Amino acid sequence: GATAAELTARGFLVPCSIVAPASKLTRALAQDPVDALLSLGVDEHGQRPKTLVYARSVSESHDLAARFLAAGISAGAIDGTTRSDVRDEVLSRFAAGELRVLCNMAVLTEGFDVPDASVCIVARPVGHVGPWLQIVGRVLRPAVGKERALVLDLAGSVYEHGLPTDE
After folding, report:
1. Which of 25, 34, 99, 124 could in theory staple to 94 by disulfide, Cβ–Cβ 3.0 to 4.6 A?
2. What is the C-alpha separation between 7 and 20, in angstroms, rounded?
3. What stretch of H or E contains 151?
4. What is the pLDDT along the chain (167 residues), one digit of tens a residue?
5. Contacting residues for 94 by C-beta, under 8 A, at least 6 apart
């Protein structure tokens, strides 16, 4: 199959920037996820980028969504126990842009496609390359007006697994 570098060169994926701490972290995060998103600012329309957050636990995922809301950023969270009707509503609201942040823990790793999501906050260590590429890949889908994706790797997993375009 084609590599991520080849798919990026052919326009099937967008280029990706990764911001990470100076080295891999095992327990703490380099920055608070809410502060990390707030530091990015807003676009010309006053909107935050559509952002996926991958938390360390289900409870942390929901706590982060509540903290994003408290900071004035529309956010939601889903997990493996979220009722299907609630999950469908949250996913629809995120796809429509009503929610700017969607938090989860291992639910949106594969098979989730919202191409205009452009920021991924990895707020957990990722132990294996497969999940790392799947998580980062959620924001690599091209969309109209989307030139790049940004991954905020708060635990430095990139040092263990590399960039998505690495061989």
Report:
1. 99
2. 24
3. strand 149-153
4. 888 889 999 999 999 999 999 999 988 999 999 999 999 999 888 899 999 999 999 999 999 999 999 999 999 999 999 999 999 999 999 999 999 999 999 899 998 999 999 999 999 999 999 999 999 999 999 999 999 999 999 999 999 999 988 87
5. 50, 76, 102, 114, 117
